Amino acid sequence: MSSEIGVVGAYSTKYEARSQKETHEMIREVATSVFKTVDKGMEPEEVDLIVVSNYSDSFGNILHTAPLVASYIGNLRATGFRVENACAAGTTAVFLAWKLLSSGSFKNALIVGFEKMSAQGSTARAGEILMRTASPEEYRVGAPFVSLYALIAREYMRRYGATEEDLALVAVKNHENATRNPLAQFQRKITVEDVLKSPYISKPIKLLDSSPLSDGAVAILLSAEPRKYTDTPVYIKGLGLRHDFPAVYQREDMAALKAARLAAQDAYRMSGVSPKDIDVFEIHDAFTISEIVLYEMLGLAARGEGYKLMREGVTSFSGSHPVNPSGGLKAKGHPIGATGV
Fold first, then answer.
1. What are the protein's UniProt keywords (predicted)?
2. Is 334 marked active-site?
3. Could you report the per-residue pLDDT of 35-93, keeping only the tens digit for each?
């Protein structure tokens, strides 16, 4: 049955720096509107599983969200729960829903991801919440996400010869891609010079190397009987979910993202495809160095060669392997619980 599980409906709000909608209003909008995107129609009563993802209840100041979604769609008989898993929260929700549908225990799943990061009112306060994802040791010394990625960037650049200009090329590409996406937070192109002139947040990572704080929500419908609802389902053929040490200093290779490599290998093995078979990639670019390293972890480039793909235009919109045509986290936006959905 697992090979037949597919996406039959999807709906997203526009990602914004500061949405005028309350958190519960965003959740209601996506949870109810997604049914209107199903080609052959699906009634809310046909959903028997609800999975909600978000990074932290501190963003949006709301808990107990699965029953809330159930009430919004008028289906209190559905089984529901919420998951958090840092920036992988949304993907974890999809992973768990897929597993449960594969088991035969459920037929149709509604997955809702959301975050209202502007609810904290300041970048400093939001940063403190984001630091809770770090290991206890890193949190104790006040190391924010950007500084941890800066450690990765510095080691990668020292070892392989990549430059700050190479990082800037990722930001330029993804901002240009976002201009084609009406739901993206940023709708303007930038230049390499713009990135290089932006202030350092944690050297070598600058402001324009970094994804923004974002508000947004998204919902998808997964079905174990996708052809019942659409003639063009998006089948999920392969999945992977892996972990590494939370602390960067504990990892065997500071210039790698091992968990992503292992998860990709699991997904490739399950689906029977290789990187060269894939036409489009959407990957995690919370900071520009992440996208470059992930080229290598996903098998698009050999170790130490990822930054060269940017120089050669391989991952551009018109390249042989387009990456983040949506604009990515960098320009589409990064409301964390919604991102992986």
1. Isoprene biosynthesis
2. yes
3. 999 999 999 999 999 999 999 999 988 999 999 999 999 999 999 999 999 999 999 99
Choose the catalytic residue: 175, 284, 321, 334: 334
CA distances from 113 to 116, 149, 202, 227, 265 (A): 11, 25, 29, 24, 25
State the number of CA atoms in the 13 A half-sphere of 301 facing the CB: 22
In a domain, 65, yes or no: yes
What's the domain count of the chain?
Answer: 2
- Burial class of 188 by CB neighbour count within 10 A (0 to 12, 13 to 18, 19+): exposed
Q: Could you tell me whether strands 200-202 and 79-83 are parallel, antiparallel, or unpaired per DSSP bridges?
A: unpaired
Angle, helices 288-297/258-271, rounded to nearest 10 degrees = 50
Q: How many CA atoms lie within 13 A of 82 on its CB side?
A: 22
For the question of residue 87 being annotated catalytic, the response is yes
Same domain, 29 and 150: no
CATH number, residue 83: 3.40.47.10
The answer to whether the beta carbons of residues 224 and 14 sit under 8 Å apart is no
Is there a single domain that holds both residue 285 and residue 198?
yes
Catalytic position from the list 64, 87, 175, 243:
87
Considering the domain architecture, whether residues 231 and 250 belong to the same structural domain is answered as no
Q: What is the pTM of this model?
A: 0.96
